[in-house]
Design brief:
8 strands; mainly beta; Immunoglobulin-like; about 150 residues; 4-stranded antiparallel sheet; globular
């Protein structure tokens, strides 16, 4: 004979309900995030963009702009999107390089968008969550490899 829910212990029933809520998607959700990067109105290709959460419990996300400057954020290669909240944004073209494989790429944009960035984004639950950043050449370009 199979017992119904009424035959379960209360703690097991609560644990099962919580597990089902998480599996069914009733917990916090990651929302797709993307946008466009431009530099003085022109698409900024091959730039890395990072969203770093203000909430230390949330995960950061990264993306790379394509030839048209479009990007999509990922937490990992398998996980797209972010949780709602406030994020600090860094944009860079710097690449440290890989000895004997890929040469370094120097920074092309001012430090106000990367090492000294004050850019932020607020992700809203159910919002569009598309963030376009139109950068300009104002400010000093700082090579992150030499930044202290």
């Amino acid at each position: 004979m199979v017992k119904g829910v009424t035959g379960c212990r209360p703690a097991a029933a609560v644990a099962t309900a919580l597990l089902l809520a998480l599996v069914c998607g009733c917990g916090p959700k990651d929302h797709p995030v993307g946008g466009k990067l431009t530099l003085d109105g022109e698409p900024l290709a091959e730039a890395d963009i990072w969203f770093i959460p203000e909430d230390k419990e949330a995960s950061p996300a990264f993306g790379k702009s394509d030839a048209e400057g479009n990007y999509t954020l990922r937490q990992t290669m398998a996980v797209e999107g972010l949780r709602p909240g406030k994020y600090w944004v860094q944009i860079t073209t710097f690449f440290e390089g890989i000895p004997e494989h890929e040469p370094p790429i120097p920074e092309r944009i001012p430090g106000g968008y990367n090492v000294n960035s004050e850019l932020t984004a607020q992700l809203e639950r159910g919002g569009e969550n598309s963030f376009d950043f139109d950068l300009n050449w104002q400010g000093e370009v700082i090579d992150p490899g030499t930044y202290k």
